[in-house]
Design a protein that fits this description.
By secondary structure, the chain is of the alpha/beta class. The protein contains three helices and eight strands. An eight-stranded mixed β-sheet has the order 1-2-8-7-3-6-5-4. Helix 1 packs across helix 2 and helix 1 crosses helix 3. The protein is globular, with a radius of gyration of 16 Å. The two termini are 23 Å apart.
Length: 191
Amino acid sequence: GGAGDPDLGQPAVTTGEAAGDDARATLAFASSAEQDTERLGAAFARAFEGDARRALRVGLSGDLGAGKTTFVRGLLRELGVRGPVRSPTYSLVERYPLGEIEVVHADLYRLESAEALAPLGLDEFDRRGALWLIEWPEQAGAALPEPDVALRIVVEGRTHRIVATAASAAGDAWLARVRASAPLAAMPGTP
C-alpha cells in the first residue's frame, strides 16, 4: 500500500487458460470501505494504457449504491480530476477531457430503450486514448459494444465483492497491469 496504508494483499486471479483459448482473466477484490473501492479505481487508472485503435470500455454492474460511482471517482481522481465526481444519472453522460486521455462516464440506469443510446453520441468517443466507464451497461443491450472489462460489484453484508472480468485481449492486458499494482485484499475462495 501507499504511505500510511497497510498492504492489503493481492487480488485472487484466474486466467481460465485450462478452460480453452478464449478464456479471459478475472480478478476478484474485497472492499470493506468506500476508500478501498476508490483505491481500486485508482489502481485501474494507473494501469490504463489507451488502445491504439479505439476506446477501452469498462462496464460497471451492481445494485443501486453498490459502489460503481465510487470506483469511477477513484479512477478519475488518480487521472487528475479535482472537481466533484457524481454519477450522471440525469444527464446520462459526463465527459472528462484530460489531455491525452478522455474519459466518458455514462450512467444508463434511466435509459428508456436501447434505441435511446444513439443520440448520446458515445460512438464519437470511440477513439484512441478514450476510456468509457459505463454504469448499467445492460440497459443498452446489444446497442452498446462489448466492454473490455466487465466489473461487477456485489454487496455481501459489510463487504463489497468486486469482480473484474476481461472480455478482450486489451482487457486481459489491463487486468494483468492492475494485478501487479492492486491495493485490495483478495476475496477468499473467489476464482
